[in-house]
Design brief:
138 residues; four-stranded antiparallel β-sheet; 3 helices; globular; binds zinc ion
Length: 138
């Protein structure tokens, strides 16, 4: 299987995570460049992972996944899947190196709206935040 190349995005474009900032000043900083993988908070990492989903950056998704729970690989986005937006509902920290982020991510597949409501757990090790796992709200 050939790997689809990530969708191009201009550094000045609005960030896919919906922060209202430019991509280069938001999630783009963590996706590549001198601050690669250095998201400063769990929320920043959460947002950058959503943007990575939107942009098809599966290497970034795997690199920010904790080694204990990281899958061996990721399926590319389903063809026709469109991510519509991210809403971060709640961020909470449990001590200095653990955090949870509750969010809703909306997408559309074949004309049908989908909604993912999840509380993700994050852990910081050696100064780097990782996604650990998540609980999906029904
Ligand atoms: Zn962003």
């Amino acid at each position: 299987m050939t790997k689809p190349s990530p969708d191009p995005i201009s550094p000045g474009a609005a960030c896919p995570c919906g922060s209202g900032r430019r991509y280069a000043e938001c999630c783009g900083r963590w996706h590549a460049g001198p601050q690669h993988l250095a998201a400063s908070t769990a929320e920043a990492l959460m947002r950058s992972r959503y943007s990575a989903f939107v942009l098809g950056l599966s290497d970034y998704l795997l690199a920010t996944w904790h080694p204990d729970t990281r899958p061996s690989g990721l399926e590319p986005n389903e063809p026709g899947l469109r991510w519509l937006g991210l809403e971060v509902r709640k961020c909470a920290t449990q001590g200095a190196d653990r955090a949870t982020v509750e969010f809703v991510a909306r997408s559309k597949l074949a004309g049908r709206a989908q909604r993912l409501h999840e509380t993700s757990r994050f852990v910081r090790e050696d100064g780097r935040w990782y996604y650990l796992d998540g609980e999906i709200a029904r």
